[in-house]
Specification:
91 residues, alpha+beta, two-stranded antiparallel ribbon, 4 strands, YHS_dom
């Protein structure tokens, strides 16, 4: 019997290619501070996202007349899998 455990990974794994990735392989879409240009990621709830940076990187989806911005490239496909669920996170 082994006690091997699988490491869990978030959708924001550095293994996901992303044109907006910072030099350390992680996205920096949080911007300089909270303002009207900020929102939160509907997939990684509570993660701040700079709307302009996310838009420039293509990290957004439109759903039922609303635009949702993501903190990383992994969140878009997760959102696509169940947009109603993730849109509800923003309500």
């Amino acid at each position: 019997m082994t006690n091997d455990t699988q490491a869990t990974s978030s959708c924001c794994s550095t293994n996901t290619p992303n044109p907006a990735a910072a030099g350390n392989g992680r996205d920096n879409l949080m911007g300089g501070g909270v303002s009207d240009g900020m929102t939160t990621c509907p997939v990684m709830v509570g993660t701040a996202v700079n709307k302009a940076a996310a838009k420039a990187a293509g990290l957004y989806r439109d759903y039922e007349g609303e635009r949702y911005y993501f903190c990383c490239a992994g969140c878009g496909p997760a959102f696509d899998s169940d947009p109603a669920k993730y849109a509800a996170n923003m309500a």
